[in-house]
Amino acid sequence: MPVNLPPGLPIVPDGERPSSPLRERNAVHSPLEKRPVDEAYVSGPYEMSPEDFEEAVSDALQLIPPKAASAMDNVAIFIEDDYTPQPGENPDTVLLGLYEGVPLTERDSWWEAGSLPDRITIFRQPILNICSTREEVIDEVAITVVHEIAHHFGIDDDRLHELGWG
């Protein structure tokens, strides 16, 4: 497992998005694109079952190129309904996803000695709140999953914005 990964390791979809029952239920397939936040918050909320949302997260994980997926180490992915701001945080904080852990680029030889897995949490309700269609939810989930996994690889928010995954 390489400790020093190159900055800006590309984590982008290879070719077509995976097919899933979620995709088959949609006649239209929109390309992966990020909408401006102000426009997005006006459009939602979209209703989606927890099972369909979990399937969207599972499909998004399939977007990670095999080479990058095999480099992921000691990370668990969770889905929660909403983010609860921590003490001292703005109570109006809204997060779509959260990475908690030690990025691969910061781990040393002592890291594995008793370390808990890194944690990526995808927050269901905030994503549904900014989306008005199933396609938007699927795309937003994919963007959020890739964004949080990129943090596991040590890629910061500024670089993710440069790469179009911000």
Structure description:
By secondary structure, this protein is α+β, with helices and mostly antiparallel strands. It has a domain at 42-104 and 116-163: Zincin-like (2-Layer Sandwich). It has helices at residues 21-24, 37-43, 50-61, 66-71, 124-129, 134-152, 157-163, and strands spanning 75-80, 97-100, 118-123. Strands 1-3-2 form a 3-stranded mixed β-sheet. Helix 3 (50-61) crosses helix 6 (134-152). The longest helix is centred in the C-terminal third of the chain and has 19 residues, at 134-152. The radius of gyration is 16 Å and the shape is globular. Residues 1-42 have low confidence and may be disordered.
SSE arrangement:
Layout: H1 21-24, H2 37-43, H3 50-61, H4 66-71, E1 75-80, E2 97-100, E3 118-123, H5 124-129, H6 134-152, H7 157-163
Parallel strand pairs: 1-3
Antiparallel strand pairs: 2-3
Helix pairs in contact: 3-6
At the first level of CATH, the class of the domain at 42-104 and 116-163 is Alpha Beta
Number of distinct beta strands: 3
Computed structural class: alpha+beta
* Helix run count: 7
Strand content: 5-15%
Under the CATH scheme, the architecture of the domain at 42-104 and 116-163 is 2-Layer Sandwich
Keywords:
37% helix; alpha+beta; Zincin-like; 7 helices; globular; three-stranded mixed beta sheet; 166 residues
In short:
By secondary structure, this protein is of the alpha+beta class. The chain is built from 7 helices and 3 strands, in the order ααααβββααα. Helices cover 37% and strands 10% of the residues.
